[in-house]
Write a structure and sequence with these properties.
The chain is mainly alpha-helical and 482 residues long. 40% of the residues lie in helices and 8% in strands.
């Protein structure tokens, strides 16, 4: 073989390897959605992907439940876990040190920011596809547009609540324009109004009923718009101080809530423990699944850090512990009424919440794991809460989160490695929220008599699950709370 032939052979071999490697490496991932040419099938897939996007949660950067940014930053809960250094970024939030120069970009607020804008991108991709179709080609086109805009409105709303000024991204912007969009394009009030347009479109174009569970309907849009207007009614200056309460916005809240209430589509869930499974109270919820053919299912892992650490059926990780302040707030006077001004005078302990101790609202056992009390409404020995389940009581006390957890033998529960996931929904708006939003608007307008029946509906609607009632009634926990 001469030199010329060798060169030709080598060139041919390199070309063949290049083609083979290219074919081998360029494999479309499973679950990949490509917009492609406009089609009904593609549009439906992209809207479904947008719904999935709003539930792309994570334990270290909550996107839906927001427990890190809500109750931990308030006086309702402590960070929990294995001391202040365990997920120290959450400890910074608890101590009101929101921004740290050394903070990681794969946990906390940066992660939540990224998740929401990824979900917005999915909604916008769906809208771009839908805008290329006609109503004749796709009879559900307007409905799907309204759904995508509702989801986009939800994401922008959550970001605005967290960050106040945010870049507003819609489907008309190119990638280059998105990079140039600032968080000061709109004033505070203008930003509220721009987000509100997506919800208003839903009110005007979504059906009252959806045939498929989980899709937003007209009343979900109305309830969410009411929520937005209630936030907007409290007008703020640049130091976040309320400078005025806008009465016309409050009246909008009342009217929108009344639209939901008068529809007759919703009721308060009579059993509080069943409130997170598409019941009569759920107006819009993020849907999750289990045993759906995938490795881990479409599970909600947002609260996966928050199970009791020492409990044998769980084993990790003891975060999001109820505060002493929250437990104290369940104390009642001799008539069963809340101690609005004096509830913190006495620090309640498990020993206090007994027949010989102080009177408390029994709903404490819906939310808080307490030594010697049933956990998740169970009376088996394995589910009687013990102080030994608490991971770091010296720092965070002995109370443990319970309302957001599930029993380990629930068909909705799955342990994935050391962490826990569930198929339980996360409710974004419940009927109770609508009643209380309307009540708040009435109160701010000086119409307390209109608010009182709404508040009482919520206060007295839910009953104790039978198993818990049997356990706590002999303990003397029910004291004229009605």
């Amino acid at each position: 073989m001469n030199i010329k032939n060798i060169k030709i052979y080598v060139i041919a071999l390199i070309s063949l390897l290049a083609v083979s490697c290219k074919d081998y490496l360029e494999v479309e991932p499973q679950g990949f959605i490509q917009a492609g040419d406009p089609s009904v099938e593609s549009a439906e897939g992209l809207v479904t992907a947008a719904y999935a996007g709003v539930g792309n949660d994570d334990m270290v950067g909550p996107t839906v439940s927001m427990w890190v940014y809500g109750s931990v930053r308030s006086d309702d809960a402590y960070k929990g876990g294995g001391g202040v250094g365990d997920m120290d970024i959450f400890n910074n939030y608890e101590q009101y040190n929101i921004t740290q120069p050394t903070q990681s970009w794969d946990a906390g607020l940066p992660y939540t920011w990224e998740n929401y804008y990824s979900a917005i991108s999915r909604a916008n991709s769906a809208l771009r596809m839908l805008n290329q179709l006609t109503d004749e080609e796709f009879d559900l086109r307007t409905t799907r547009i309204a759904e995508a805009r509702f989801l986009r409105g939800h994401c922008h709303f959550m970001l605005k609540v967290l960050f106040k000024y945010i870049p507003y991204i819609d489907e008309t912007l190119t990638n280059e324009q998105i990079l140039q969009t600032t968080n000061r394009e709109y004033s505070n009030d203008e930003l509220w109004n721009t987000i509100a347009e997506d919800f208003q479109y839903g009110v005007d174009n979504l059906p009252a009923d959806q045939t498929e569970v989980g899709r937003a309907n007209k009343y979900a849009a109305a309830a969410y718009l009411a929520k937005l207007r209630l936030y907007q009614a409290y007008e703020q200056d640049e130091e976040n101080q309320v400078t005025n309460i806008n009465q016309s916005r409050l009246q909008e809240v009342i009217d929108l809530c009344q639209m939901v209430i008068s529809s007759g589509e919703y009721n308060l869930q009579p059993d509080f423990a069943e409130n997170f499974f598409n019941g009569p109270e759920s107006i819009f919820a993020i849907q999750f699944s289990i045993s759906d053919g995938t490795t881990a299912g479409r599970l909600n892992f947002e609260n996966g850090l928050n199970y009791p650490h020492g409990a044998p059926q769980y084993g990790c990780c003891g975060f999001h512990q109820p505060s002493q302040n929250l437990v104290n707030a369940f104390a009642t006077d001799a008539n069963g009424l809340p101690k609005f001004d004096t509830f913190n005078d006495v620090a309640l302990s498990a020993a206090d919440i007994t027949p010989t101790g102080v009177t408390v609202d029994p709903r404490v056992d819906h939310s808080v794991g307490i030594d010697g009390h049933p956990y998740k409404y169970r009376n088996e020995d394995a589910y009687i809460f013990s102080n030994s389940w608490v991971r770091d009581p010296g720092v965070y006390g002995y109370f443990q989160s319970m309302k957001e957890q599930q029993a380990a033998d629930c068909s909705c529960y799955k342990k994935q490695g050391p962490f826990m996931g569930v198929s339980k929904n996360i409710d974004i708006i419940r009927y109770a929220d609508v009643l209380l939003m309307q009540a708040e608007a009435y109160i701010e307008l000086g119409q307390q008599d209109m608010a009182r029946p709404l508040i009482n509906q919520v206060k007295f609607a839910s009953v104790l699950p039978k198993v818990l009632a049997e356990l706590v009634l002999p303990m003397g926990l029910l004291h004229q709370t009605t």
